[in-house]
Amino acid sequence: MVMFRDESVLIERNWRADLLLLLITSFLLFWALGSRGLWGSEGRWAEVSRQMFLTGDFFHPRIGDEPYFDKPLLTYWFITGISAITGVLNEWVIRLPSAIFGLISIYATVLLGRRVWSAKVGLLAGWLMLTSYGVVFWSRAAAADTENLAAVTLCILWYWVRRDKLNFTTFLIFYLIAFLGALTKGLTAVVVPIIAIGADLVMEKRWKVLFGPSHVLAFGVSLVVYLCPFLYATMTTPGDYQSSGLALVFQENIQRYFHPIDHKNPFYIYFYAVPMLVLPWAPIFVAGLIGLLPAWKNIGKKTQWLLVTIGLIFLFFTLSGSRREYYILPIVPLCVLLIAIFLSYTVHESVVSPRNWGIKIQSAFCIGLIIAEAAIPFILLYIKMKTHFDFFTKLGLSGIVIAVAAFFGHKITERIMKKKVDFPKDVQLLAGPIAAAVVIFGGFFLWQLPIIDTFRTERLFIAELKAQANDLPASSIGIFPKNNAALLFYLDKKEQIPILKTASDWDSFLSGKTPKLVIMQNRDKEKVPLDYGWILQKQPDIAESTQSWDSASSRREKWQAWIILGKETAIDYVSGSEEDKTSAY
Which of 84, 433, 455, 574 can pair with 366 through a Cys bridge, CB separation 3.0 to 4.6 Å? Predict the structure, then answer.
């Protein structure tokens, strides 16, 4: 095996490279973190955290007044802890834990590569990790995925640091990290590291250590730590709380694996999900697999372990009945390490050809991304001509600016790296695409997404709704037919907002003389109880605007709200004459 020369001195000498990675990582993950409104599942993290402050109960998560123990407690505690320190609870605070653990994941990958292979492998893997789409995306979203990712990566790093000292302390810290990670998202934070260290122990024929008392005791102690929040929540369950954290752990982690309730994607989903998560480095990753697998006997035991672990983790997620693209995010650090090794070492002559064409395809792919950014204004202009929607001037301008910056960043970095004789030529060739990826991802997440977010009609609807509902008590606002976490978070009422599930809920809500605000999405209008269909005959007082480019399905997701003037009882209102109903408007 042809390897770098000893790098113990170079680690000290290249502190500037580590500092540069830290600065760029911090900028890419933290800048403009709260510039966009909540989307998708982010509303759940926001509303659960808000409810914890309102109720003073941090062990029984709720959305509105309904239990929501689908995820463990630790991520909510991260959010509420930051909120308690800063005094605010907004989009920035809600996403901040994800960004922090994204940063930790990247540096754990750097240290893992440095520990097991070389400083150059670690540094290159760190840059590849930072510029992998899945890592940046989930580091800037309110969720528990990067917390889970950080726990898995730290576990594997800790094992390799203490690989020759497999005593009680080693196993205890390993499992504490794993089970704390499980308290953010689920038991994959425990299973994936066990797969990783199990592969090495079996390959090294040291697997019997897993049956030793130190390992069993460390696992038991850590398991107790994991169970403590659930047991305390069970012992202190309020009378109106009909949900069990431990039951949902079983349902979400074990039952769902073998008998999925939903998310039943095809078994081959991860064949394209993994390349998507490591974009734009999918071409060189595939080339790495093609190049290293045939050279198995020459790649060394550590790289063999890496390939086996990637395969086993891929198999573990594929065998699950419940599959989603981002579930397999913990595989990304191992994938970027594989790329870094593939580019850094010449292990066999059979690797040379795949590496050469892999780099060529990778370079062409990155140039294609630059061209795609430059083409944005022309694409938008074409769409405008076809659909007559307002031309996104700022978005079109951003595309040109980002493309130019990425092009010059690519060329300048490429020229600088040619002077760095410490780096192999193939690593130098990838420096330009990495610089371009930093610019493109930075431009997309920090500039273009906030621009796109200004065209989200939901935010304007919620702003108008909040203005109208500001003086109304929570009891005079009704949401049909179920809770919406983001809506509840933005309305920010201290009391619980009624959910109109049944006809009796409608009757009770609409009784009385005070004005009432009824909120629902277009898709739910057909579900309104028959006796209350007359509400829909009145034009909504507040309606989410529709854009010309909205699809039929997106139009069904639009919100509408009616202000209903109260009567003595809802029954009187419904049974009244048409003239009475008209006059009530």
Answer: 433
